[in-house]
Amino acid sequence: MPLFGAHLSIAGGYYLAADCAGSMKTPILQMFTKSNNQWQAKKLTQEEIDEFRDHFKSNHLQMAIAHNSYLINLASPKKEVYDKSVEAMAIEMDRAEALGIRYLVMHPGAHLDQSEEKGIAQIARSLDNLLVEKKELQVQLLLETTAGQGSCLGHRFEQLRAILDLMKKADKIGICLDTCHIFAAGYDWVSPQGYEDTFREFDRLLGLNSLKVFHINDSVRALGSRVDRHANLGKGLIGRKPFERLILDERFENHPMILETPPEEVRKDLTWLRRVWNKAQKNK
Ligand SMILES: [Zn+2]
Ligand SMILES: [Zn+2]
Q1: Which residues surround ligand 1, an ion (CB under 5 A)?
Q2: Could you tell me the pTM of the whole model?
Q3: How many CA atoms, within 13 angstroms, populate the side-chain half-sphere of residue 184?
Q4: How far is the CA of 220 from the centre of ligand 1 (A)?
Q5: Which residues face 142 on adjacent strands?
Q6: How many domains does the chain have?
Q7: Which of the ligands is closest to the CA of residue 7?
Q8: What is the CATH number of the domain that holds 25?
Q9: Both ends of the chain: CA-CA distance in Å?
Q10: Each residue of 29-74: pLDDT tens digit?
């Protein structure tokens, strides 16, 4: 069974996110390691780290994933924002490592008014620098496919390929595929043929072995709208059938699949996902 999980709140303590995952009976969780819309964060204390690691264990979790702050923009043409972003990424990598997190998912960045090429080159350069500076860390960075709002990069697989092509340490980088984002970006993975075509294209440009994590969200907005609005499974324009196809795809049998919608509905989605998977095993 894929490792189903959810993005969970750290309000009140990291250990509460682990408890919440435990109460949902999921083997994994995703969380922010600091407030996602503030630059500042107080230092992690040893007590917070130990508490999280204890609860991670007592809830029998297998993997934790972090998502970086929305403020970080490695493609920003504004020097002050860029410098702050690089520093903040380094801090996020340290925090993730301290908490025993396996993957740190990041949005590539928005080039704003500079060109796509410059934005891509800047992302590649800063990632290489970060990977040299933090070479002793185990946590792996994953570039996320985006919906392509405004000047956000990463909505075409080619853009992610271009970032990796400019990097010296591209082999250290993995990919997180968000099903809502690629749909909004224009990848029609809804029909059986569209599904095959989309993953063939992904494989051709990025290699399926670089695909480490899925964010499984339905989309409120239309195919190609380039607007990022998550919906619960079957409540958006993608519908349930493509998600059924995805979770039963043997290529992704052991992949983390994270829901990024509010917790009440996530519980229903988890029930549905497990039911579909279990039913398919009986019919095998
Ligand atoms: Zn996502
Ligand atoms: Zn999103």
Answers
A1: 178, 215
A2: 0.97
A3: 27
A4: 14
A5: 105, 174
A6: 1
A7: 1
A8: 3.20.20.150
A9: 14
A10: 999 999 888 898 889 999 999 999 999 999 999 999 999 999 999 9
